[in-house]
Specification:
single chain, 85 residues, mainly alpha, two-stranded parallel sheet, 2 strands, 52% helix, elongated
Length: 85
């Protein structure tokens, strides 16, 4: 169950705040970070649903080989666009 900063909104593409993880928007605000960590420790939220979702839906997307193939596809697309010009 990730507790993660959200630089430029990039992490929010994967983590649905309060569902499959928690996002830290103000990384310099220790009070906010403490509050977020307490949510998990105090069992204020059902982290098991989030963990289950991450294992079933997110883990595959983050596998090295999956990402490698997606990047290569993007490079091929760009290469094709350049050669057509």
């Amino acid at each position: 169950f990730p507790i993660q900063s959200n630089p430029g909104g990039a992490t929010a593409e994967i983590i649905k705040d309060g569902f499959n993880g928690l996002l830290i928007e103000e990384t310099d605000n220790s009070a906010e970070i403490r509050k977020i960590i307490k949510k998990v420790i105090s069992k204020e939220m059902d982290i098991f649903k989030g963990v289950s979702y991450n294992l079933e839906e997110i883990t595959h997307q983050l596998e090295r080989e999956v990402i490698r193939l997606e990047v290569l596809d993007k490079y091929r697309f760009i290469e094709n666009q350049i050669t057509q010009v």
